[in-house]
Amino acid sequence: MSPDDLKRQAAATALEQVRDGMKLGLGTGSTAKHFVELLGAKVRAGLNVIGVPTSEVTRADAERCGIPLTTLDEVDRLDITVDGADEIDGALNLVKGGGGALLREKIVAAASDRMIVIADDSKLVETLGRFPLPIEIIPFGLAATRHAIEQAMASCGISGELKLRSGKDGHAFVTDGGHWIIDAHLGRIPDATRLAATLSFIPGVVEHGLFIGLASSAVLASPQGIRIMERSSGRVSGESK
Ligand SMILES: O=C[C@H](O)[C@H](O)[C@H](O)COP(=O)(O)O
């Protein structure tokens, strides 16, 4: 079974949670794209839902699939967001933003009653940080913001190379919000909650890819089957399907 088959299986399992009349956050990335496609098929078969896309790429995919869309200007709460992740730890904390959509993804997830993460099980890690942590920054004051990020990391006892993300044209990658991304190559983030809070204090940092306490559950697909991790009363438990 290919990694893409596993992603689609995870997406199909999350789709079982969708009910008629729901307002849905639509994630970004190769796994979330499967969810959008499968949801689109249900919509064309008569399911009545409305979606808020987390990126312009997902907006285009959702429109192509016939999913009715709205914005968080028009609605203030969503029932469920379904999104992928770059890393997931045992406490359901995440690293996201490999595709550059972390800012809208976090706004949409925070506006949702539930966030379901879908992934193949290679995304499950013991400690976050092997995947470079995306940090979305304002282009103004790049050197100063980079220095502040280094200081923030040092105060959390970690260090690593900070690389400004490049786009396909070789220039700085520009997010949907018009910002840049620094990828922090840390290897290991022993205290993700502390780093998340520390980064959030830096004026030039718009948002970072640490999603702490936002995911309610994760659907992880492996060749052995589906594993569901669920947060309830602050504790995370696992179950195989
Ligand atoms: O910015 C992109 C998102 O956070 C994605 O959800 C994340 O990078 C995972 O993407 P994929 O499903 O393609 O691995």
TrEMBL record:
SUPFAM superfamilies: D-ribose-5-phosphate isomerase (RpiA), lid domain, NagB/RpiA/CoA transferase-like
Keyword RNA-binding: no
MF terms in GO: ribose-5-phosphate isomerase activity
Keywords, comma-separated and alphabetical: Isomerase
Catalytic reactions of this protein: aldehydo-D-ribose 5-phosphate = D-ribulose 5-phosphate
Pathway membership: Carbohydrate degradation; pentose phosphate pathway; D-ribose 5-phosphate from D-ribulose 5-phosphate (non-oxidative stage): step 1/1
Binding positions for substrate per the UniProt entry: 28-31, 83-86, 96-99, 123
Alphabetized PANTHER family for the sequence: RIBOSE-5-PHOSPHATE ISOMERASE 3, CHLOROPLASTIC-RELATED
NCBIfam families per record: PRK00702.1, rpiA
Role according to the record: Catalyzes the reversible conversion of ribose-5-phosphate to ribulose 5-phosphate.
Name assigned to this protein: Ribose-5-phosphate isomerase A
